[in-house]
Description:
Blueprint: H1 23-29, E1 43-48, E2 73-77, E3 90-94, E4 113-116, E5 131-136, E6 142-146, E7 151-157, E8 176-183
Antiparallel strand pairs: 1-2, 2-3, 3-4, 5-6, 6-7, 7-8
Amino acid sequence: HNIGKGRGTVWAWPKIESDKNTDEWCRNNSRPPALAMQAHSAPLGITFYQHKDNNAIPGKCKGAFSKGLDGDAFVAFHGSWNRDVPTGYKVVHIPFDQPGGNPLNTGNNSGVKDLFRHDGKNAAWPSGVRPVDVKFDTCGRLLVSDDGAGRVYTLSYSYTPNNQNPTSGGSCHNLLVIRKIVWL
């Protein structure tokens, strides 16, 4: 997919010293954002899920994410430190139309799903959790590093005979469990 407009695409705020960089010039020479993120939420880590068939996963592995999430993005939001109303402090799933494609349902970010967040009155965790990065392990589980509470969390899926298995596709957000906490 060609996300930009070819050579010379402006990927950041244009220089303001030029008279040609008006709002109209920006609309005509820039691609609008495919997805908006809340200011000060501090997205620090991003990874894209690459599904592996069962024969490519070590035998003792359990909890792999679903095939239906292949190519989707997972983002760690470190969180704000200086806002009256905190924002961020979570990990989100951003579904894509296909691996290497574009985010789905991006109007008002309706396709974005919170996977790991505080359920209290505001975004900040009383325990100090501040996600930094996200990576998938060889078993297809999502690891979340945290520099606020000094932990690494393993997010995995649990499947039962009545639910989808990891190779059948689809999204299983209601089956996500935090299985293991590793202290640093």
